[in-house]
Each structure stands twice: as C-alpha cells, then as structure tokens.
Amino acid sequence: MSVNNKTIHLSIVSHGQAALINVLLSDLEKLECANSFQVTIIKNIPENSSSLHFPLSFPISIIENQQPKGFSANHNLAFRNAPFPDQRKYFIVLNPDLRIIDDIFTPVTEILNNDTKIGVIAPLVKNPDGVLEDSVRKIPTPLRLCERLFGNFRDYDFEHAFLEPDWIAGMFLAFRAETFELVGGFNEKYFLYCEDVDICCRLWLSGFSVRVDLNHSIIHDARRESRRNLKYMRWHLSSLGRFFLSSVYRKAKYFHSKRKMQS
What we know:
The protein is an alpha/beta fold. It is built from 8 helices and 11 strands. The chain has one domain (about 10-260): Spore Coat Polysaccharide Biosynthesis Protein SpsA, Chain A (Alpha-Beta Complex). The protein has helices at about 20-30, 70-80, 105-115, 140-150, 175-180, 195-205, 230-245, 245-260, and strands at about 10-15, 35-45, 60-65, 90-95, 100, 120-125, 135, 160-165, 165-170, 170-175, 210-220. A 5-stranded mixed β-sheet has the order 3-2-1-4-10, with helices on both faces. Strands 5, 6, 8 and 11 form a 4-stranded mixed β-sheet that branches. Strands 7-9 form a two-stranded antiparallel sheet. α1 (about 20-30) links the parallel β1 and β2 (about 35-45). The radius of gyration is 18 Å and the shape is globular.
C-alpha cells in the first residue's frame, strides 16, 4: 500500500457524536497507515462547528446536512464527496462508536486488492469487554428473527481464518470503490436498518462474495437504539417489512439456499 496516495476513503456519520468521533479520529491518527486515509464526515444533525478536533495528518471533508438523512443516503453522499476521489481505491464505512487500536486497514485492503471477487469485507467485532458481537449473520427470515428474539445463539461458528457469511452488520464495511459504485451503493429506500443486509445480498447476486477476516477485530460500543426507543423500533420493523417484500430478498433467499446445499 502506498502511503503517498490517499487510497482509503473513510465515511463517518455523526448524529451529534463529535466526542466519539474525536476518539475514533485519534485512533486512526496513531496508525502507521494513516497517510493513506482521506475522510468524509457528515454531520447529520446540527452540532458545534468546532466540536471536531484538528489538525490531523489526513484530509477531512465535512458536510452538514440541512435535514437529517438515513444511513444509506449519508454514506452515498460521502462516497460522492471524497476529498481526493481520483486517488481513492477503497471505500470503508465506519460507525462513530468504534475503537480501532491495531491496523486492520492494511490487511482488509490487501485482501480486497488480491481478490476482486470479494464485494465487501469486515473484521470481527467485539464489545468493550472483549466479547464477540453478533455481527456475522445468515439472511434473515421471519422465523429466524423470532428464534433470535427468544434465543441466544450465533448463526456461524468461527473455525477458519476467513468466513463467507450471507451478510455482515454495517458498523465496518470495506469495499473496493469501483465495486461499491458498480452495485449502486446503498439502497436509499432504507432510511435506517437493513441497508447492510440489502447491499450484501445484492453483492452476492452480482457475482461477488461477502468476507469476514477472523484474524482481526475492532471494538464496538453498541447503542442498540431500536431496543430502547419506539421511533427506532418502528424504523427497524418498517425496514424489515420492506426487505422481506423486495425482489432482492426473494432472489437472495433462493441463492443462499442453493449455496448452503453446495457447501
């Protein structure tokens, strides 16, 4: 990876979360690969213009939305507003509530560079206590959602160096920029929730794979708003309904049933 080019475009959306983003930016600044970063930060709701701490060694563009946008629209907007789009090779979506202590960007981008049929890749996700989070999943079905609601289990066992799940949760998603553009980015019909499963399904259906690097991990201090806030719960249920009624879901469900039989 060349440190002279800003090949890694990071997209971060703030919902009044400048304090969290400052910690994340500080983590990024300490990494040896920091010179390869270019960052777009979208302020989705009004917050103090001086709330983010600068300067840093990598360029940052900041967009302040006049009206709040959803996950898909925000990250698509960030993709269109890279500080150095001609140098970008990779596009990585980051939650603001991540801690990144080790350089995971070099291994995941090298994997993407070496295998262009990988559509998206992510590391393992752990909570602040080091417990593995449930970020690697099979395609949802109404029955599987009920089982998850009343049970405590994981969809996959982590037995190998790499895993190719049906989909991965959206707190860290690394794409080759041309792949992200080829599939049309995130589906903006989803305001919040299901954007990650939808794009993973579309990648599989477009001939790409979804990959998890089990050798590297990040820390995620999850907020779980949909479990505490009725507004978020409504958004979550609405997105699930939209996904279950979509042609992407029908095609992906059939695709993964065949993939399972062949494995």
